[in-house]
User: Which sequence fits this backbone?
């Protein structure tokens, strides 16, 4: 029996993380039973159990592939392998441990280790501990269930080990203490405690790190409360009736007294910003938004806005920050868009680059430089990296079978071809993917393929392409990943997506494309090709920086001095964590590689997805038309930031958050504090004498400030925002309890008291203005103006771990105070909801029917006229007529189509603008794809539909995964 | 609430004589006075005891491994599903859904006590799901439908309608 366990058990893998007290249980039982097992130490965020979305450690992987993630079940299992069955009473103790003891212990550990509130632990633990003590006293046996140690003893001992090993925390419960010592003497227990917590119990540094990484412990306190502890069913947001120790309160008062003296100012930004010796040099990038569409809210929160908040925060902290971004402009989608709008690709890029820039400007995204990828520098740098990869043997050549349209004289990439899906026979499958069954398609597999431009049947031809040899770089990549993910703040999804890519093994990836609109491949054998966007686009970060400063290499070839943060939505992760790093590693040019990869999940719109084609959702350019200020948009998007899980934009929720959090909580507090100073004290901050109650508030606020800094340093942007709202909640409560507006009318003592409360409150308001700056820059500025805050506050309060000092001392004159926020009324919200709820494209259906009814006759006539005109154009083309002649007929055709659209009640706008521009024959060479569309009679309207269908596929997350052909690989992770 | 569950479980197990239960504490943890004078506390403990009493050990899992899996999901039910925050519900549904992707029941191909108690515990969540959400958590919904139709499981709870054909077919994001 024993022998069989041994041979079999070598295949057990037990995953533990340092400092996790749950791991002690299982290690002790492993020792105790002698079951052999590979013990693997992993990171706190390692998701060992594939089907659980949050890391569950410890976990045991059985040879059958089954994961056990409940420590108690693992212990029971090991004991059973050893031949012992669990009895009712053992089961009962294990259930009690999981449901009652564990929540109380976690709560207590959180308070002692992270908040330094040792004095509070007896209150939390008293219930379960005395229950255990009594149960032990009523028994006559040495151990919990018998004279022998059972699995229940070991499990309970391990759960209590961190707490009970510190005798100062819990007194009394003598029987319990004796039992605890008895179990603790087992060799198995001693060695398990040594492995996980270095035998140090509560003082183990690893325990602290572990607890800090447990996001749910603090916010989930309501959940982890059990029987025997105090009920804590507080609503979201104020779950921290944080109990402060006397020392904390006193030390907060001391900090407060320091004032603003001798603390450094945040220096003015001077361009060009370059890395500096002795500073923290932080390079921030946001995924480059694809130029051919207007970004929607999901795109904005996913990258540019998140990166902006972090960059602003970094500047406040006194780091040397450079934030660059720009539009990604090459690729098929741009060519398609150009055809659709009747412009050249360059014109499309110019037009939409400006649209993007103005949207981000409205959202107050404070780039140090917002560039684009269609620049000379891009060509230079991309070609340089290409040659270096080539010289070092990291590129492979291979023949690829491709469809070529003889009529158009070109290879048909991705979306230039359509046909019948080989899997489901859907007749309108695209060259890269079928919209019906969702399968990825290799264009040559399409049945009855047709060219999307001229509707001719393409032929299969082989074409030579270059591939990046990822397998050759895999070992180096893995080494680097280990270092970077180990030391940097990578979000859990970023690590997981990366891991799954590497785990599945890397394959060579094609880096060239048969297109015109792209960075040309400099190799003579591939002169008619361009780089595939995924190779090219990330190089945009470098070239955009190069367009900002000639000394760009100080940022990008300087991993020793520079820390690189990449912000993106999760679908972009593989390109930033695997593919692009491989290009840079292979180039062997000391490139700066990403240290912190910050990826968001997706933002949905109400209960559906953003969709340009259906007109569902709010797009960047529409946000300002809502009349809601940019700061409020920023606030709500950041409040919703899909951090850790998907979230959804909702109008009603936006109004609620605006009215409850901004207006009634934050705005109300700041406004009241300021108004008291101006109304009761002639705009002059009164003298203050701090009482215990005031110091308590200072300590509460100071604690939230520390949390804020702690969270922001780790890019937990959404969580950090809650700290700001908690502070104003504390502030409101403080004002409410102390009633300065009543005391001002009382005797001298009361009036002085009113002064102290007002003075403290207005200083809290001043602190809030600084903490708000990354989130709501305008509001932050307005508050500081209203309070006439000295410029040095911005730098001072966020230094180190945070200093809540008195920055507006007695005698300070404040400015004019006025309300900061406005109520969002429900009618206003209802009308916005309607406006953005999917009716934008088709407009009012009733009106449309009327139009159709009236113009049905005219529509029929026009349909005929369009067909005739199209035939005429085709004939002219067939006769190789002069371009000017064809151009003139095309203009007529487009005009007719526009009228037809109108008659059919469709929005003719996009066709109209195209037609006008297209009408200039001189600027319309025959190769212009837009002209071809019209010339060949392929319906422009149809092209628009198709592109919209494409847009729908790529609706959110700042992505262009379809373009990259990776959708199936990343989206479903 | 848990008392109703236990009484349904007794019926499902075919136990003739209903037991008497009391509760203890704010969370109303069930307590069973057994014949030998011993009190058993806790839903999982009592349910396990009932299964043994009914001589249906297969409901606790056959092999040691199966037993551990059953125990694990029983514990999950009482620690994670019971009293979960609103925001955690999605995580629970998502996790169960991906776990059940290649399984018929929680412990693989065999129906166990874990299925019964998980079904009782999660019923109130599933009742409130929209059709679209049920489709989103398709594997979990399939499991739930199986269990609610398993002979004599669904005693005190109303049936939840599960559509057989998909309505939201395009949503493969």
Assistant:
């Amino acid at each position: 029996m024993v022998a069989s366990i041994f041979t079999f058990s070598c295949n057990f893998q037990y995953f533990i993380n340092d400092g996790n007290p749950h791991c002690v249980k299982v290690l002790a039982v492993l020792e105790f039973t002698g079951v052999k097992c590979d013990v693997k130490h992993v990171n706190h965020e390692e998701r060992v159990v594939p089907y659980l979305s949050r890391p569950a450690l410890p976990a045991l992987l059985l040879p059958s592939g089954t994961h056990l993630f409940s420590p108690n079940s693992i212990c029971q299992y090991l004991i059973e392998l050893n031949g012992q069955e669990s009895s009712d009473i053992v089961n009962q103790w294990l259930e009690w441990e999981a449901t009652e003891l564990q929540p109380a212990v976690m709560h207590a550990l959180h308070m002692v280790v992270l908040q330094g509130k040792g004095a509070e632990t007896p209150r939390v633990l008293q219930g379960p501990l005395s229950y255990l003590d009594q149960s032990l006293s009523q028994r006559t046996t040495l151990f919990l269930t018998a004279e022998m140690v059972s699995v229940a003893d070991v499990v309970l001992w391990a759960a209590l080990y961190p707490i009970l090993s510190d005798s100062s925390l819990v007194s009394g419960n003598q029987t319990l203490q004796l039992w605890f010592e008895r179990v603790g003497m087992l060799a198995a227990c001693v060695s398990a405690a040594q492995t996980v917590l270095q035998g140090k119990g509560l003082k183990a540094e690893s325990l602290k790190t572990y607890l800090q990484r447990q996001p749910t412990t603090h916010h989930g306190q309501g959940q982890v409360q059990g029987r025997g502890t105090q009920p804590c069913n507080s609503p979201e947001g104020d779950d921290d009736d944080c109990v402060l120790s006397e020392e904390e309160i006193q030390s907060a008062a001391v900090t407060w007294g320091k004032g603003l003296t001798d603390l450094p100012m945040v220096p003015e930004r001077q361009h060009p910003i370059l890395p500096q010796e002795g500073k923290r040099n932080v390079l921030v990038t946001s995924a480059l938004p694809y130029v051919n569409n207007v970004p929607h809210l999901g795109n904005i929160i996913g990258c540019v806005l998140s990166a902006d908040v972090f960059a602003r925060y970094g500047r406040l902290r006194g780091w040397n920050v450079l934030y660059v971004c720009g539009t990604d402009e090459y690729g098929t989608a741009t060519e398609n868009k150009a055809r659709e709008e009747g412009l050249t690709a360059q014109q499309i890029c110019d037009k939409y680059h400006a649209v993007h820039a103005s949207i981000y400007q409205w959202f107050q995204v404070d780039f140090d430089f917002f560039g684009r990828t269609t620049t000379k520098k891009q060509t230079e740098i991309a070609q340089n990296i290409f040659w270096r990869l080539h010289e070092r043997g990291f590129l492979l050549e291979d023949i690829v079978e491709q469809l070529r349209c003889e009529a158009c004289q070109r290879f048909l990439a991705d979306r230039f071809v359509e046909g019948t899906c080989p899997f489901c026979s859907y007749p309108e499958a695209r060259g890269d993917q079928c919209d019906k069954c969702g399968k990825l398609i290799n264009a040559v597999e399409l049945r009855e393929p047709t060219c999307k431009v001229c509707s001719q049947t393409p032929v299969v031809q082989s074409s030579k392409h270059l591939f990046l040899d990822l397998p050759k770089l895999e070992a180096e990549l893995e080494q680097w990943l280990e270092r970077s993910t180990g030391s940097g703040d990578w979000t859990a999804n970023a690590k997981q997506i990366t891991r799954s890519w590497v785990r599945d093994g890397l394959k060579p990836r094609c880096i060239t494309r048969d297109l015109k609109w792209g960075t040309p491949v400099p190799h003579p054998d591939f002169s008619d090709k361009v780089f595939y966007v995924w190779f090219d686009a990330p190089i945009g970060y470098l070239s955009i920086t190069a367009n900002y400063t000639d000394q760009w290499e100080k940022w990008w070839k300087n991993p020793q001095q520079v820390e690189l943060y990449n912000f993106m939505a999760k679908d972009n992760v593989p390109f930033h964590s695997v593919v692009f790093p491989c290009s840079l590693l292979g180039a062997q040019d000391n490139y700066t590689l990403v240290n912190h990869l910050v990826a968001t999940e997706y933002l949905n719109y109400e209960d559906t997805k953003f969709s340009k084609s259906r007109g569902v959702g709010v797009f960047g350019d529409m946000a300002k038309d809502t009349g809601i200020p940019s700061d409020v948009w920023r606030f709500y998007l950041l409040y919703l930031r899909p951090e850790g899980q998907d979230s959804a934009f909702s109008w009603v929720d936006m109004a609620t958050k605006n009215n409850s959090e901004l207006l009634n909580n934050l705005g109300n507090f700041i406004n009241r504090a300021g108004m008291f100073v101006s109304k009761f004290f002639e705009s002059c901050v009164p003298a203050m004498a701090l009482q215990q109650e005031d110091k308590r508030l200072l300590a509460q606020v100071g604690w939230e400030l520390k949390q804020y800094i702690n969270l922001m340093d780790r890019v937990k942007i959404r969580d950090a925002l809650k700290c700001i709202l908690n502070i104003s909640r504390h502030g409101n409560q403080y004002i409410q309890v102390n009633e300065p507006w009543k005391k001002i009318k009382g005797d001298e003592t009361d009036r002085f008291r009113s002064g102290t409360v007002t003075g403290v409150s207005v200083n809290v308001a001043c602190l809030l203005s600084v903490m708000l700056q990354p989130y709501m820059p305008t509001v932050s500025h307005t508050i500081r103006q209203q309070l006439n805050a000295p410029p040095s506050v911005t730098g001072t309060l966020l230094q180190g771990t945070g200093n809540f000092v008195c920055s507006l001392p007695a005698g300070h004159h404040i400015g004019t105070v006025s309300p900061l926020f406005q109520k969002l009324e429900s009618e206003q919200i209802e009308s916005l909801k309607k406006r953005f709820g999917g009716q934008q494209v088709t407009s009012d259906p009733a009106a449309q029917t009327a139009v159709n009814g009236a113009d049905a006759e005219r529509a029929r006539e026009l349909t005929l006229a369009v067909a005739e005109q199209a035939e005429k154009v085709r004939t002219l083309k067939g006769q190789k007529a002069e371009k000017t002649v064809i151009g003139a007929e095309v203009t007529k055709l487009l005009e007719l189509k526009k009228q037809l659209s109108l008659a059919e009640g469709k929005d003719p706008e996009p066709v109209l603008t195209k037609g006008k521009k297209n009408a200039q024959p001189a600027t319309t060479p025959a190769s212009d794809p837009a002209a071809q569309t019209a010339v060949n009679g392929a319906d422009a309207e149809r092209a628009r539909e198709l592109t919209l269908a494409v847009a729908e596929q790529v609706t959110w997350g700042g992505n262009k995964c379809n373009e990259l052909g990776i959708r199936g690989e990343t989206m479903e992770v | 609430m848990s008392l109703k569950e236990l009484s349904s479980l007794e019926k499902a197990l075919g136990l003739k004589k209903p037991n008497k239960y009391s509760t203890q504490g704010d969370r109303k943890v069930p307590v069973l006075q057994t014949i030998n004078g011993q009190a058993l506390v806790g839903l999982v403990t009592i349910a396990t005891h009932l299964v043994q009493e009914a001589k249906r050990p297969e409901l606790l899992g056959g092999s040691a491994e199966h037993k551990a899996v059953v125990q694990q999901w029983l514990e999950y039910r009482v620690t994670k599903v019971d009293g979960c925050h609103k925001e955690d519900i999605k995580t629970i549904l998502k996790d169960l859904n991906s776990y059940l992707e290649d399984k018929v029941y929680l412990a693989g191909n065999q129906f166990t006590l874990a299925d019964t108690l998980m079904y009782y515990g999660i019923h109130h969540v599933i009742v409130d799901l929209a059709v679209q959400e049920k489709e989103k958590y398709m594997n979990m919904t399939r499991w739930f439908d199986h269990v609610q139709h398993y002979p004599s499981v669904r005693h005190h709870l109303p049936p939840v309608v599960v559509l057989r054909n998909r309505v939201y077919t395009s949503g493969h994001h």
Q: What stands out?
A: The first strand of chain A starts at residue 13 and ends at 16. Chain A touches chain B through 42 residues (CB under 8 Å). Confidence is low (pLDDT under 50) at residues 1-9, 216-241, 839-855, 907-973 of chain A.
